[in-house]
Amino acid sequence: MVVAGLQRAIFEHKIAPGTKLSEDEVGEIFGVSRTIVRSALQALAHSQLVSIEKNRGAFIASPTPKEAHEVFEARGLIEPRVAAMAAKRMTDQMLEILASHIEDEHAATASGDKGRALSLSGGYHLKIAEIAGHEVFTDFIRALISRSSLIIALYWRRADTTCESHSHHALMKAFEHRDPAAAEEIMRSHIVDLHSGLNLSDVNRSPLSLADALKL
Amino acid sequence: MVVAGLQRAIFEHKIAPGTKLSEDEVGEIFGVSRTIVRSALQALAHSQLVSIEKNRGAFIASPTPKEAHEVFEARGLIEPRVAAMAAKRMTDQMLEILASHIEDEHAATASGDKGRALSLSGGYHLKIAEIAGHEVFTDFIRALISRSSLIIALYWRRADTTCESHSHHALMKAFEHRDPAAAEEIMRSHIVDLHSGLNLSDVNRSPLSLADALKL
DNA sequence: TCTGCCTAAATTGTAGCCAATATTTTATAC
DNA sequence: GTATAAAATATTGGCTACAATTTAGGCAGA
Q: Where are any strands of DSSP class E within B36-172?
């Protein structure tokens, strides 16, 4: 699937915001016709990962500072509620899945694969939404996490992601105790941390060529 | 635009959930080729207004009771926050726009045009989000209101919408006083009212033919 | 040298065609 | 008469070709 391929590349920061996605070029890379590419680009445009300009083409989206602020404000409203719901419905099996997810994250961080670590960190948040079992919120969170990936590429202040692991561990404790209020509060402050980890005054620009980026 | 045309028909309850949207038929009605129709149907599928089944076609979505519940739960979380934000940023000009919107709603109700009244009622909620100036929340609310239209078609308990006008008037008062807390609370209870106005145990099925429905 | 316009190349937008899959009809057997 | 199976029909899926629009380059004039 070409949507998934492009998404992964975006999540792992293989392609930078602003990169042009020519239909022919993308089609060449994935070995499909322009029809498929077009459909994929429209899907990605709908989730705000690419912006399509009429008669000009599709580009990896470059969220503005305002947009970045709004995305994390939205996450700050929705995710705590969802974390509380997940805590209520938590099972031992789900706890194990979350734990192994965190291990993968650690492994990726240890091996220095920043992109993969970041992508897995988003996956952890998404997993919580899935456990909460609320499809509407899950869809929203999926979209917000995707956009967060672009935002982090543009505005992330520090190079480390260690604060991540700490918060995620704290969340695990709350889930183990099936404590909705704690989960909600930890998630809230975690999102605030992420939000304040952004430097919305200047931008990290690092344009890449599409062909280089997409070695699948 | 064919997307807008289909959307309006859905919002005004001209086409019922479950109705099949044949590509040829839709293309015939709007005078465009199947390529355009396919693109439009995919866009509508992304916003969950139609569901596309592989090799079978596109159908107006039929939200399940669970989905209906979730949509209004999401609205109950997001819209109060947005109403508070709107109250903070409210201007006299915006108040007038909202007021005229309510008048239109009254007029439509008075003339017995239920579909249009419902559509305008949704538009009022959307307008509030636009005034709040938060694009991310506005997009979410737009999607939720769209889906609410289908949900109301399927599960609305009573025939009247008078409770609507009452809550909307109460909101106006809060906006006039620039009172975020009041706006938030009124919106919250308004959404709860809407939610409890649904009868999620049985369904109002009323299939229509597409050609009849789309007298644009 | 810089500005403005005009032409040409490249890229997206749309339409129509053939292939693949689902649905309906019809024929046959029980 | 009913049920099963096979063929015919209709509908969607994907590709290619053509049209429309934008962008880039070059040329002329100031």
A: 50-53, 57-60
Q: How far is A45 from chain B (nearest CA, A)?
A: 10
Residues A150-209: pLDDT tens digits?
999 999 887 665 556 788 999 999 999 999 999 999 999 999 999 999 988 766 555 444
Q: What pLDDT, in 10s, does the model give residues A32-56?
A: 999 999 999 999 999 999 999 988 8
**Interface check A3 vs B, CB under 8 A:** no
CATH of the domain at A40: 1.10.10.10
How close B42 comes to chain A (CA, Å)? 8
What ipTM goes with this model? 0.90
Helix (H) or strand (E) run with residue B28 in it: helix B23-30
Size of interface A-B (CB pairs under 8 A): 45
Residue B166 sits at φ, ψ, to 5 deg, of -60, -50
Domain extent at residue A12:
2-62
Same domain, residue pair A35 and A80: no
For residue A123, give both structure tokens. Answer: 């996956």
Q: What is the DSSP letter of A57?
A: E
CATH (domain of A192): 1.20.120.530
Contact residues, chain B, for A44 at CB < 8 Å:
none
